[in-house]
Specification:
alpha/beta; 3-stranded mixed β-sheet; two-stranded parallel sheet; 3 helices; 23% strand; binds zinc ion
């Protein structure tokens, strides 16, 4: 029996998913694909500056697996910048992280995506329709 795929936990869903070098005609453009968990590894380690141990925990993977995802991401980005290739961000085995929110009016609990990319400030309770404001989607 094939093993079920393991989903990596991702807190950030990118809105910008294509990067391309300026001044290169489309027919000469080479493209590579960075998947969403590779971007997440770069974000946690190189942008947020977290320790590898913490990055691995946040993504629900082992440390060696995190290291492998990170190295793959860095190699692709280096390749793109040095060789002038376009980067398409898509795919991968990931699940967007969610957090539980409780409606103050009716006490109903529901899940919302963490997705720092959206920077939403409010969400509607699916049960009573009351707007719940000031949700901090970006946990430190
Ligand atoms: Zn409610």
């Amino acid at each position: 029996m094939p093993r079920p795929p393991k989903y990596r936990r991702v807190e950030f869903e990118p809105r910008i998913t294509y990067f391309k070098p300026a001044g290169i005609p489309k027919c000469k453009l080479q493209e590579l694909t960075l998947n969403v968990e590779e971007l997440e590894a770069i974000r946690l380690k190189d942008k947020e500056g977290l320790e590898q141990e913490e990055c691995a925990e946040r993504m629900h993977v082992s440390r060696p697996t995190f290291q492998r995802i990170l190295m793959s991401a860095r190699e692709k980005i280096a390749d793109a910048i040095v060789e002038g290739k376009a980067i398409r961000i898509e795919g991968g085995n990931y699940r967007l992280a969610t957090e539980t929110v409780q409606c103050a009016a009716c006490q109903y609990e529901f899940e919302i995506p963490l997705g720092c990319g959206y920077r939403q400030r409010f969400v509607k309770c699916p049960k009573c329709d009351k707007v719940i404001e000031n949700i901090n989607f970006c946990k430190p």
